Structures are given as structure tokens and as C-alpha cells.
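It is worth pausing here to work through a concrete case rather than discussing structure prediction in the abstract. The textbook approach is simple: state the sequence, then state the predicted structure, then interpret. We follow exactly that order.
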Amino acid sequence: MAVLFDTLKLAERLEAAGMPPRQARDVASALAETASGDVATRQDIELLRRDIDQIRRDVGHLRETTQADIATLREYVDLRLGEMEARLRGEIHGGDAELRTEIAGLHTEIEKVRADVRGWLIAQAFAIIGAVAAIVGLAAALSRLIH
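Step two, the predicted structure:
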């Protein structure tokens, strides 16, 4: 609602109060421009209050649904993380069993190699003993021949 007033009358009153005529007209004109803008009525303010109340209710509702959505999402994420953890533990356990089997196989291989090396060492020891016995026998035979 615009406020109406007589700018000419205001300019005349300002001149009568001692203001120069041009300045009085400019002040009256500026005041008229300012006052001619929209002015809120009580009804406008009441409508605005109702709109603000509705916005507050809407924000409250959004807050509640957002919190519910967050709780639902948190439950979903916890469930998925639990499933992933169980799957990973299973894979680790399976991998652990495979490693244990592989290690047991390696232990078996190592024992076979040790047995082979022991057998070879024993055979070499007998061969050396046999060679030493032969050398000793030859030395004894040579010693008898020489004497």
C-alpha cells in the first residue's frame, strides 16, 4: 500500500521554514519516492508469519526424514560392512588353510631332500672308508713286498 501525501504542500512548508526553494522541492520529491514504495499491511505481515511457520514445519519434517534416512543408511552400511568382513575372514581362513597345506608340502619335500642328502653322505662316507681301506691294504702289501 502506497502512502500518499502532497509534495507541493511539503515543499511550501520547507520553504516557509527557511529552506531554499530548489532544495525544498528536491527533499519533498525524494520523500515522495521513498514513501510511494510498497508498505506492508498487517495482513501482509500475518501472511508472512504464516509462510514462515509453514517453512519451519517443512524444515522440521525434512530434519526428521533426513535423520531417519541417515539411520537407515547407517544400518545398511553396517550390514554391508559385516558381510564384507565375514567374507574377508573366510577368504583369509581359506588362504590360511592353503598356506598351511603348502607349508606342510614344503616340509615333506625338505625331509625328502634331507633323507637323500643323508643317504648320499653315508654312501660317500662308505666310499671314502672303502678307499682308505684299499689304500691301507695296498700300503701294507707294498710294505711286505719291500721287506
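Step three, interpretation. The radius of gyration is 55 Å. The chain is about 90% helix and 0% strand.
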